[in-house]
Amino acid sequence: MLLGTVLVLLLAGAAPASAHAALRSTDPDDGSVVRQAPRHVTLTFTESVGLLDDSFRVFGPDQRRVHTGEATHADGRSDTARIGLPGKLAEGTYTVAWRVVSADSHPVSGAFSFSVGKRSATTGQIDTGPAEDPLTRGLYDAARYLAYLAAALLVGTAAFALLCRPAHTSPLRRPLVAAWWTLLGSTAVLLLLRAPYEAGTGPAAAFDASALGRTLTGRPGLALLARLLVLLLTAAFLVRLSRHRDTAKRPVALAIGTALAVALALTWAAAEHASAGIQVPAAMTSSVAHLLATGVWLGGLVALLLTLRRSSGDDLVEVVPRFSRIAFTSVTVLAVTGLYQSWRGLGSLSALSGTSYGRLLLAKLTGVAVLLLVAGYSRRWTARIAAPAVAARAAVPAPVPQPVGAPAEGGEGAAGPGTGEPGTPQEPESHGEPKPHGEPKSPDGPAGPGAGSGDPGIRRRLRRSVLVEVAVAAVVLMITTVLTGTLPSRAQAEAAQQAPLGALPPTTEITMPFDTGTDSVTGSGKVQVTLDPARVGENGVQAVVYGSDTGLVVIPEVRITFTLPSRKVGPIDAELTDRGGYWSTNSVNLPLAGKWTMKTTVRVSDVDQVSVERQVRVEP
To answer: Which portions of the chain have biased composition (kind: Gly residues) (predicted)?
Structure first.
């Protein structure tokens, strides 16, 4: 029921992908007006990106798609994307829609515009192509979640069998096989859906042979192929292990199993957040340790639950304390690696509540806290089960040393009493000491009547608490799946700090109403002024005048001057030129940073004009 609910939530609640890569700058700048048509469009990102066949769509003033060249990296830099434009572009506004694949395997897309010569009005909505197909995204996320679950169950169950050494491993065979097949199937689905997921198209595109071929050459596709290979090796290892259960070879089996588990975890670390950003080697090491600790703990819980249901009480006396120690070590590793990964992804404490990544991380931490509380409750019953073994070991006296050549007590040589056979183990003599009797004591104090592994009440309580742990762990893994597809707060802050040079701060686009007192359409309205880039040095200024009916109007003159009162600089005349529908210049020099007064004079006739002043900040 829990798995079905999670799948419904993932399929019905699919949202647009958020990736690690963020757009840093565009050339031409977003919203800019250039005098000459550019030969290329270049995007620069905060990290390396992969290109698609349809990474760019350029639309002209007539809303028709412009023929462009093949998308490439500019100057060999993997954090850029460039496309060539035709030699001659008509005047007007062009829209560029783009879509690339982030280094951490998630697609990211967007759009911007620039104008050649002058801006042109658009008459309708431009279809810039698909941003995200909800069904493809939902299926892809569901497969990712199943892969996480299956990997945790596979690693945890195998580790439980090798490290906790239960007498009977038959209850673990079915979940081990189910986890292997589920991971194999989900990986195959991810491999097929990779191309439509990147392109934002429907699931039917998964059967396009050329698209699948491109997937197999990219890093995410290669990581999925490597996962399939590791799974085949894992199957061979598990089959051989089940046929040759020789305890003398247990260290070799542990070494091989550990190597396969590390290789499996690397297929995630090499294609997700750890593979991009800062401190990549340390991040990948931390990610691998985090994934393995998660699997050993959470997958081991499922194995423990099955063992509690089907194993004898005597077997649990040794198995349960072993898993308790392993789980404690896993939680310690999770705490250390989780703290590092949180710092790496957040960048600041304020991002915990101010970003989507931070809020998801808080939700995950809350789930982990609940998980630890339940685990603490389970640990109480673990101590009760371990109590008989502790008491029994404490009651066995140390062996009494015998002189060399002396006969063993109770018979000739080392023979058992009355058997005449050598080598029969003897029960130790108590030498008059009373044998232990009564109820054993647990580490937490005296156990109640019937305490121990044979008490069905204690086993039932432990089984229930472990079942709650498994349920909470499934929810935590679901949040983790969403978190790995969300833009980290550090990358978001980096993109904001390193915004495109031509990006306009909010104060550089100002709309000012005017009224000359006449009743004509041009006598009142508003003028929209854009200052680009509002920094010290050369700036561009564009002014568009709207009449009282909100339509564009033609007037005799628009004049704009800039004054810096604090430094007694100005007025500096922008010397705007009529561009046939709007007024502009690209050569007004503002020499100092500070809060400038922008005075805009609108003349609607030979005798009617009005001036409006606004404050605009010029950055260094």
So the answer is: 408-421
Closest CA to 565 of 515, 495, 615, 498: 615
Inter-residue contact 531 to 511 (CB < 8 Å):
no
Q: Where are the alpha helices (DSSP H) in 270-312?
A: 280-294, 300-310
In the numeric block, which tokens belong to residue 412? Answer: 């000739």
Token reading at 315: 């077997």
Global pTM exceeds 0.85: no
Whether residue 44 contacts residue 37, with contact meaning beta carbons closer than 8 Å, is answered with: no
Q: Where are the beta strands (DSSP E) in 76-230?
A: 80-84, 92-102, 107-116
In the chain, what are the helix, strand and coil shares in percent, each to the nearest 5?
Answer: 45, 20, 35
- 502-524 pLDDT, tens per residue? 333 444 667 778 777 676 666 67
Please give the Cα distance from 362 to 350 (Å, whole number).
Answer: 12
101: closest CA among 71, 75, 134?
A: 71
pLDDT category at 232 given cuts 50, 70, 90 is very high
Amino acid identity of residue 596, one-letter, is W
DSSP secondary structure string, 1-64? -HHHHHHHHHHHT------S--EEEEESPTT-EESS--SEEEEEESS-EE--TTSEEEE-TTSP
Taking each continuous run of H as one helix and of E as one strand, the counts in the chain are: 13, 19
Cα 556 to Cα 390: distance, rounded to the nearest angstrom: 99
